[in-house]
């Protein structure tokens, strides 16, 4: 079988498999229960939005930190217990901000990883198909010698 014939057969088989998959339901869920259909472009947009949100939060989320710390210190030095409470509230805010920043970074990094991993899988599958097709044309006779000894075919002509 030639490469073109093999490739045409693989494409036809893939098309038959795709034709047998039920289409998505207009209300958002498919008949087999899968309700998430995501394309690489969508993943890129979501990852970029998470990256931009991370950048914006890292600067805007710390905007009030110097003023809060100064006010807490001033109130505390004047003998007000509100100073300690304000300092505690500022620490809580910074902790929650860090949780949000970590979540945005994780979303962005995971989507980048998923796209790259899927691309690597696609390349590996394509390489396996090429190797399988090439292997059909290579005829290496089985050896009847000791299984631990590799078989080296003899040359058919003069050796230079």
Describe the structure.
By secondary structure, the chain is an all-alpha fold. It has a domain of 68 residues. Helix 2 runs antiparallel to helix 4 and helix 3 runs antiparallel to helix 4. The chain starts with a helix and ends in a 23-residue tail after the last helix. 3% of the residues are buried. The mean pLDDT is 78.
What characteristics describe this protein?
160 residues; elongated; 4 helices; mainly alpha
Low-confidence parts: none
Proportion of strand residues: under 5%
Shape summary: elongated
Q: How many distinct beta strands? A: 0
> What Rg do the Cα atoms give?
31 Å
**Order of SSEs:** HHHH
Distance between the termini: 35 Å
Q: Report the helical percentage.
A: 55-70%
Structural class: mainly alpha
Estimate the mean pLDDT confidence: 78
Largest sheet geometry: none
Number of separate helices: 4
Question: Nutshell version of this structure?
Answer:
With 160 residues, the protein is an all-alpha fold.
Describe how the helices and strands are arranged.
Blueprint: H1 3-19, H2 40-60, H3 65-77, H4 82-137
């Amino acid at each position: 079988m030639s490469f073109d014939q093999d490739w045409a057969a693989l494409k036809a088989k893939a098309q038959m498999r795709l034709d047998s998959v039920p289409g998505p339901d207009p209300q958002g869920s498919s008949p087999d229960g899968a309700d998430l259909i995501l394309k690489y472009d969508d993943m890129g947009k979501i990852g970029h939005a998470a990256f931009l949100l991370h950048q914006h939060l890292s600067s805007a989320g710390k905007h009030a930190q110097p003023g809060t710390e100064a006010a807490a210190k001033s109130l505390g030095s004047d003998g007000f217990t509100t100073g300690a409470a304000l300092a505690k509230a500022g620490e809580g805010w910074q902790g929650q901000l860090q949780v949000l920043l970590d979540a945005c970074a994780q979303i962005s990094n995971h989507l980048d990883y998923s796209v790259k991993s899927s691309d690597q899988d696609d390349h590996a599958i394509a390489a396996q198909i090429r190797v399988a097709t090439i292997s059909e044309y290579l005829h290496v006779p089985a050896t009847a010698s000791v299984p631990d000894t590799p078989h080296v075919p003899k040359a058919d002509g003069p050796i230079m």
